[in-house]
Amino acid sequence: MNQKRVRVLKDAPASSGPVVCWMSRDMRAQDNWALLYAQGKALELKQPLHVVFCLVPSFIGATIRHYGFMLKGLAEVERDLARKNIAFSLLAGDPARKLEMFVEQRKASLLVTDFDPLAIKTGWKNDVAAAVDVPFHEVDAHNIVPCWIASPKREFGAYTLRPKINRLLPEFLEEFPALRTHPFGEPSPALKTDWARVRTTLDVDASVGEVDWLTPGPRAARRALDAFIEHKLAAYNSQRNDPSKDGQSNLSPYLHFGQIAPQRVALDVRASSASPPARAAFLEELIVRRELADNFCFYTPDYDNSGCFPAWAARTLADHRRDTREYLYSLEQLDQAATHDHLWNAAQREMVNTGKMHGYMRMYWAKKILEWSPSPEEAMRVAIHLNDRYELDGRDPNGYAGIAWSIGGVHDRAWFPRPVFGKIRYMSFNGCKSKFSIKEYEDKVRRSELRNEK
Ligand code: FAD
Ligand code: FO1
Q1: What's the CA gap between 242 and 435, in Å, rounded?
Q2: Helix axes of 342-354 and 376-390: crossing angle, nearest 10 degrees
Q3: Which of 257, 290, 296, 304 to mutate to test the pocket of ligand 2 (most atoms within 8 A of CB)?
Q4: Phi-psi region of 379 (alpha: psi -120 to 50; beta: other; left: phi over 0)
Q5: Which of 393, 405, 411 to mutate to test the pocket of ligand 1 (most atoms within 8 A of CB)?
Q6: Residue 448 falls inside a structural domain
Q7: If you take atom 29 of ligand 1, which residue's CA is the nearest one?
Q8: What is the mean pLDDT of residues 25-33?
Q9: What is the pLDDT of residue 187?
Q10: End position of a domain, from candidates 239, 269, 299
Q11: Which ligand has the minimum distance to the alpha carbon of residue 250?
Q12: I need a labelling partner for 177 at 20 to 30 A (CA). Which of 44, 191, 377, 382 fits?
């Protein structure tokens, strides 16, 4: 496999012993470059391969909605790995301590993990690198073009990253090799994780219920991709910005939890019989927009606060800091969808009920939070809190980039100035009314509420 997908986080003398793959972002056995790399190393060493996942019960305020989806997916991963003679262990607690102990107990010769630009993950890896004394390698199993290869710096926008990605796609958008049945170590390891007990003993916020309209796990993810390609891809370009229609792929929860590889999605879409414009429109979002979000979080430490706004946006928002806010809403009022704007309220209710607000409404939703908050800083805090509390795909680079785009002009340009927004792109109720049927969107949200009440 292309070694440019690998970074050395820590070097140490080589030894013999099993290889440990610490799975975190990319929770799947198939199409997983980190796992494929770890297996390659274990085969060279003629050693067993162990996969571990460290369960952290307080991951950035995640609720049972998120852990329920994630744990069901992980149970499937344990089964998929066992079929390949690869043992899976679920650890729970502080990753640095747990990984250090695991590596020590197993006398591992190499520790491999997947890439994630979130600050919390970088912190974990720094701690683990300090704690272990074996080589520690990181593999970008999420981006098609490895984040550090696509660009050495923060990009201004899609227009600056797109040519760099497109030039490198021929090298990196390749078919995956299959995960092999591992010839070293215990054959068909026992499925030892008691997932029911993990679930019941998990101490997480249960006030945001799980969703039932989407089946978690890598198999369901693959079915969702096949269904999207067959039934929706052709109309994607014309429907993706109409929230009253069901034109999106609904892949983001699966992509967020790594239950399907973006590269698998790209390969299958590219090979589909859909028209080139339909394929191109989708691949622009899936590849350029998504990998731009990883670039943003990887190279911008304060990706989740107003410190990340480009200079022009910070200045214009400062110039309008004292403008009168016609409406002001608290986090509680917004959380209760109790504003004067019934379209915004519908979007909030869609997110709370289904765990997935339509992509077009996310822009409008976040921009109104800027308009109705006392400051851009408070708007960022509130938007991130609500997004990560309710969206199944929350706590994701796409979310931090999407909110910073909406509120702080990140990856966007200046527009005509207006109160509060200054030159930040504005979106209005009437603008939405001219683009889609607000009534049909609100009916769709109400139907999802009625389904939930059953
Ligand atoms: P599709 O339209 O089917 O797109 C397919 C895939 O392409 C998505 O899953 C995603 O990986 C990628 N993609 C599409 N649009 C974008 C985009 N604007 N930016 C980055 N990648 C994109 N996405 C999240 O994954 N998690 C979030 O928490 C999140 N919060 C957002 C908040 C705001 C304010 C905004 C403006 C956008 C946010 N997005 C977020 C991006 C986008 O809205 C979602 O990725 C998309 O709606 C997910 O639904 P889908 O997979 O059905 O999308
Ligand atoms: N990653 C982990 O390695 N361990 C966890 O316990 C964990 C919990 C979790 C809960 C909700 C959620 O949205 C993400 C979670 N993640 C966890 C991170 C996930 O693996 C993704 O890497 C990032 O959130 C996306 O970059």
Answers
A1: 7
A2: 40
A3: 257
A4: alpha
A5: 393
A6: yes
A7: 399
A8: 98
A9: 83
A10: 299
A11: 1
A12: 191
Per the domain annotation, does 327 fall within a domain?
Answer: yes
Å from CA of 258 to ligand 1 middle? 14
**Contacts of residue 444, Cβ cutoff 8 Å, sequence gap at least 6:** 243, 244, 350
Q: Are strands 110-114 and 19-22 parallel, antiparallel or unpaired?
A: parallel
pLDDT of residue 273: 95
Instruction: Give the DSSP H/E element, type plus range, for residue 54.
Output: strand 49-55
Has residue 185 been placed in a domain? no
Is the whole model's pTM more than 0.90, yes or no? yes
Question: What is the domain range of residue 263?
Answer: 148-177+216-299
Whether 454 shows a pLDDT value over 80: the answer reads no
Of 89, 121, 142, the domain-final residue: 142
Distance, CA 204 to ligand 1 centroid (Å)?
25
Pairing of strands 19-22, 87-92: unpaired
CA of 119 to the centre of ligand 2 (A): 12
Which tokens sit at 165? 């990605």
Q: For residue range 201-248, what is the model confidence (pLDDT) as tens digits?
A: 999 999 999 999 999 999 999 999 999 999 999 999 999 999 999 999
Give residue 412's pLDDT band: very low, low, confident or very high (50, 70, 90): very high
The CATH number of the domain holding residue 403 is 1.10.579.10
Query: 434: helix, coil or strand?
Result: helix
Per-residue pLDDT for 429 more than 80? yes
Q: Which atom of ligand 2 is nearest the CA belonging to 117?
A: 26
Number of domains in the chain: 3
Nearest-CA residue for atom 33 of ligand 1: 402
pLDDT (0 to 100) of residue 315: 98
Q: Which atom of ligand 1 is nearest to the CA of 249?
A: 3
Strand partners, 384: none
Q: What is the pLDDT of residues 364-393, one digit of tens each?
A: 999 999 999 999 999 999 999 999 999 999
The pLDDT, as a whole number, for residue 452 is: 80
CA of 401 to the centre of ligand 1 (A): 10
Ligand 2 atom nearest 27 alpha carbon: 20
